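U., I forgot to send this yesterday:
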Amino acid sequence: MLISLGVTISMLLVAATILVLGWNSARTALIDTAERTANDTGQLINARARVLLEPTQSTLRQVSFDPIVDARTLSQRIDRLYVLSEVLTVNPMISAIYVGYDNGEFLLARPLDNAAIRARFKAPGGANFMVQARTRQNNGKILGEYIFFDANSLIEERRAIPEYQFDPRERPWYKTANETTDSVLSSPYVFFTTQQVGVTLSRLSRSGKSVVGIDMVLDDISTTLGSLKLSSNSELALVNDKDEILAYPQMERVLLQGSNGFTFKKVAEFDSPPLQGLQAAAPAPGKVKFFDVAGVETLGIKLPFDIWAGSEMHLLITAPVEDLLGDLPQKRRSILWTIAVLLAILLPLGWWAGSRIGHSLDSLGALAKRIGHFDFSGQETRDSRIREVNNLNGVMLGMSNTIQSFLQLSHRMAVEPDMEKMLHAVLRQLVSATRCSDAAVFLWNADEHRMQLHTLVGDEKSKFEESFAYSPQQQPRVGSHAIQNGELQLELELRGRNGHLQGMLVLIHPVDSAHAESAFREFASQLSGSLAVSIETRQLIEAQKNLLDAVIRLMADAIDAKSPYTGGHCERVPELATMLVDRLAAENQGRYADFHMTDDERYEFYLGAWLHDCGKVTSPEHIVDKATKLEVIYNRIHEVRMRFEVLWRDAEIAHLQRVAAGEPADISLASRDARHQQLRDDFAFVAECNVGGEFMADAALERLKTIASQTWQRHFDDSLGLASEEARRLTTSRAEQPSLPASEYLLADRDDHVVAWEGKRPPVQKGDPANIYGFDMKLPKNKQNMGELYNLSIRRGTLTEEDRFKINDHIVQTYIMLRELPWPQTLKRVPEIAATHHEKMDGKGYPRGLGAEQLTLIDRVMALADIFEALTAADRPYKSPKNLTESLRIMAFMCKDQHLDVDLFRYFLHSRLWQDYAQRFMNADQIDAVDIAAIEKLLPTASQSEAVPA
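Result:
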């Protein structure tokens, strides 16, 4: 009895000690948890702000390269308006996007999805978005207009607004953008039109003739503040260095309307004693501070918010300590009363209960030990004669299984990238954990206002409709109703972090006591919240991926749009390259049986292929489109022809002068006609040389020199009307101005035709210390040579050595531009894939001179696709398109010259992928019958280890 009493009293003393220690520990733990939660909240809000800004900054940079920034007429700008409307469609957080031009003209596009905006601008009923434009007219005056467009980008109404008379060049966003080449971000302020809090991003265009700006609302941050409260009485606010409240869950409480618009209340003016108390306590950033608010102990913390450079902002978080402790004080009192009652009851039963419980607790201890060591496998334990111990054993087993289910659910939702697989696995686990018979996930179709069945787990598909109409509520809805077979159907809305409807979780369960309790609904509701966040996360990732794809396609379209002769090249090459790698990856025998690509690797290749010519955005159009040898910005053959016209006139004058001097007219006329015929023949020859269609032999070059040596008389000052750079070259090239009239060669290579590098040599030569990317290219002596005889003497084609380098430089710029981007680990090889298609197997390609041992199969695929597209393209000014046989024969010879991979070309030849490509992208007259055997004979013999696919 004494032993039993001692055991009982000892247990009670231990319980009392644990109660006291537990109270203090629990209080400390809860407060520590609140501190960590507050810090996590600050990091989450910082991350949310960055998620809003980073895609917008990327969009701003891309638009600053679009032709719309240099368009000089309103019609040209409207032709590119789809670029701005696409940006507004993809990113709903953008309030407006606009371009201010250096001549005071202005173009702004804004969506009409806000009732206040539609009312302000009196938008027509069918208008989807509008354009505000200021355009200079022929009389020099600026005309303001509102142009309304429907959902198909067709003009709904065009309205002249004479009073629309502001100058964008006077706006702060225009001025600050002109002071730097980077994007400029304003501090948050209240938009006048929508009364929303937002920021403005602006950036100077590449040409420097305009500034692009984007207005972006920050409603998401205020919404996030409301959803991340530590308790119902918690307060969260974002303030700046002036103590103005920039973000608060109820923004209407902090906005002050004045004569010049809206301003923000300061903390001292705001009706929130906790926030005022925290501001007065002045805690160190990141440190918890306790202070008193009307007799209530309150916890507060001040966290740095460093999204906007140059602006000191902080996140203020407060919560009553009592809210954080919850019902802990009441539980302490209840436990004290329980101890007192147990003391009276357990004294006579101590020994008996102690001996009975002792044996049973061993197995429970082993189970608890396994749980303590993170083993939640839920192994069975032996039964006890004591019902409570058996119940406890069952509860602990259930807890272990529930924890195991939670872990598996969390793991599936965290690591499975495919949403369909994730949903199916999670539903199976969810049915097991909640002991339901069936479960389904419906996804919300916002366009049709219907729930669409996506995934189900259970025995009978007939229990669920394929889709049903649904009207989303403002708050998440939890509802259940009876169905057939005596079961209940529980419906739970799936809403993401921002409250947007994602879909619906439907659980079918039997009617029993376990499922009737509110705890089951709460349990299922918590699981549905995690599931909604997982769905939202994957949809956001997919949306960001789609945005990246759209931006890359936008860049490719812009490059193709620069030149009418290369339109479609940036699309056709990745199409052919992707066709080839997909066919290679599908091989299960032969040389390429071991070649496989993961989804990430294929996407990486897809991006690299689409970006393979992104450096052409820097290539001068007059070189890319150079159709004749004398062409610079215009075809200088017209200038040469005028000189021939001068010589023609001189011959006519000489004839008249000879006749006047007494020479017989017939003799002088014959001399004149002979001279005229010579001039016709010489000009026809020069014009033929200018086209560059045939290879020029040495005799043709000698004839050019002879023609060039003829002279004509210049009577006007050739230094007048020149641009500053051209005038500088002319002055530098000669010691003094020749007296007039001056003799000029018919075709001249003058010193001022040569544009030197002048210390701006590109770092592309091997051994150059500034060459950090390993380029290995031959640099021409000069940057440009516009000499007429020099250009006409090009033996093949129309490009000089300097022109060829400038075109080849696009791949250098491609590599540099892409290497500068912060690619994630799964996309690290995008720059290599995009910038290696001009390398050759013999190591004599460019820009890095890589050889066969350094070129991967992916690199070789890109080289093959680029060459085949170039040979078959029907839109090049300097050559006629080749048919299939000619193209494949040329590529076979390139294999013999070690330019292309022989084995890969052989696979391409026999796979007949070129036939599929031809049907989609080539003209009908280019598609001829190809003799594969004849082309195979042109290739080097395959080695014993090489397999040729059928």
